[in-house]
Design brief:
The complex is a heterodimer of chains A (123) and B (107). By secondary structure, chain A is mainly beta. Chain A has strands spanning 3-7, 11-12, 18-25, 34-39, 45-51, 60-62, 70-75, 80-85, 94-104, 107-113, 117-121. Chain A is globular and about 45 Å long. Classes of the chains: A mainly beta (123), B mainly beta (107).
Amino acid sequence: EVQLVESGGNLVQPGGSLRLSCAASGFIFSDYYMDWVRQAPGKGLEWVGRIRNKPNSYTTEYAASVNGRFTISRDDSKNSLYLQLNSLKTEDTALYYCARGHFASGSYSFDYWGQGTLVTVSS
Amino acid sequence: AIQMTQSPSSLSASVGDRVTITCRASQGIGNDLGWYQQKPGKAPKLLIYVASNLQSGVPSRFSGSGSGTDFTLTISSLQPEDFATYYCLQDLNYPLTFGGGTKVEIK
């Protein structure tokens, strides 16, 4: 059974940092692209960024709103995905989901999601 | 960035109704669109990928259609468990962008 379990969410002051983790199991983690998606309280979904797999050089993509402040990484030996959040702003307050990428017919979707970890940025 | 506009933002419907949700892209995205269902307090769930392909395990009352800029999610006969918020997502270009969501409520 595919499982994604996020952790690391917390209350942090503006300007602070946090590292989120996503532990994967039930599939060959190293084969897949992985993404982060967030959802502010009572709001819609916002894509945060992506990390590709080793054959694709672990390259990353980011939303403009987080580019330069957030960094996605992975450790395939630990079946784990990470999101380093720096220079946090109050508008980064959200539930952060990790999601597995699913390729089909040249298109990409998120076929499995974790339950999310809550990041609250407040003084 | 490609803007995804969903309509309506909310709707009220009864069990057994046929429900249609639309998503319009600000530029052509081919078939690079998925539909997701989210229930309160839960993670989103993939329903449809590549515009019209039903994800494994999703009931056949869900269907997707469209290409280019205009897409539709249809629920042929609404069931009690379908009351949720639905999102479209384009994956043609970065940044990936979601529609604003459509909340389906009980009439």
